[in-house]
Write a structure and sequence with these properties.
By secondary structure, this protein is an all-alpha fold. It is built from 6 helices and no strands. The protein has a single domain, classed as YheA-like fold (Up-down Bundle), CATH 1.20.1500. This is Control of competence regulator ComK, YlbF/YmcA.
């Protein structure tokens, strides 16, 4: 079996998870409202800018808290709250997948 086919199967497995399906549903609810979508996109863009900055963990946490306070009203909107939770759940699942991949590869590298 070729690597391309295995990659597609891997992607299909991710797409078929409940985490992905919930995220897709939550995103569709946000996308229906242009104003809400813009606000969520702005929040996520600023969040990514903070995470990708070259600041200390303490500074990053301070900036994130500041951002969360600024967008507190946004997170109280039901659709946004569901979207943010779905995003977190999906990201957590992907982290576990990558962690398992990394551990398996590391184990194979260290075996004789």
């Amino acid at each position: 079996m070729s690597g391309k086919i295995k990659t597609k199967e891997f992607i299909d497995s991710i797409i078929n998870t409940s985490e992905f399906k919930q995220l897709k549903k939550a995103k569709a609810a946000i996308d229906k409202n242009k104003d809400l979508k813009k606000k969520v996109d702005d929040f996520r863009k600023k969040q990514m800018e903070i995470y990708s900055s070259k600041k200390t963990q303490k500074d990053i946490q301070f900036k994130l808290n500041e951002l969360n306070r600024k967008f507190q009203n946004l997170s109280q909107i039901k659709e946004v709250n569901i979207f943010l939770k779905s995003t977190k759940d999906f990201n957590d699942m992907m982290y576990r997948v990558f962690e398992e991949i990394n551990n398996s590869i590391e184990s194979k590298l260290n075996s004789k």
